[in-house]
Amino acid sequence: MVDVKALMQAAKNTTALSCEERMALYNSRRGDLMGYDCPICRNKGFVFLMKDGYEYTMECECMEKRRGKWRLQKSGLQDMAERYRFETYEAKTSWQKSILAAAECFCEEGEGWFYIGGQVGAGKTHICTAIANRLMLQGKGVRYMIWTEEATKLKALKTDDEGYEREINKWKTAEVLYIDDFLKTRNGVLPTDGDINLAFEIINARYNNRTLRTIFSGERGLNEIMELDEAMGSRIYQRCGKYKLKIGWGEGRNYRTREEGVV
């Protein structure tokens, strides 16, 4: 990391240089920021300027691009984000077009949740990843949670109060949380009380903070979630408003298998 104060002090000590020459010297130094090679700041993240006889620094425009990359890496969606965009979502049928329109509209709103359930392989993860990606481009911090993996980890920490609180707070407080395969279980069995209690703890915390946005995808429709736990389901139902979608189960709606020639 470039030491700005040290760099400015070193250049000031070069008394033979004019102000313009000192600015050029500052700005010619290379920084050590990674992930994007910026010709303006030379990877320092800032540029030096002179105004009314005063020297000052200004953040380089590349920092917004860098923050976008950092948000993507931190989100856990990096591997899927390039493939799963609105532009690559298959919207040939009326139901696919309706889903795409709803997802794009959701991204333009400043608050609320999004829930999509139903048919396996119908593009639920794709559309939700596209939403998360769009929100990251808007400057939002996103976390990606694969329910089956993270729920197992959290339940294993139940006897470690400090570790449990540290881990669950990441999901409770994420600016945008995308939960994939919400309440999915092996072989279609019902979620355990431990699963329901864990889900409720996260959802209730997020429900109580209207600034947090949550995206859900899963095989269960929201009515099924309500049947499992009305308190949890009603919170999701209320926060989602008009963004509660379910893809019906039927032949031709699994485009994952259709593309592979199975259907």
From TrEMBL:
One of its GO terms (biological process) is DNA replication. It comes from the Bacteria. It holds the Pfam family IstB_IS21. GO terms for molecular function: ATP binding. Residues 67-212 form the IstB-like ATP-binding domain. This is Phage-like element PBSX protein XkdC. It comes from Anaerotignum faecicola. The lineage of its organism: Bacteria, Bacillati, Bacillota, Clostridia, Lachnospirales.
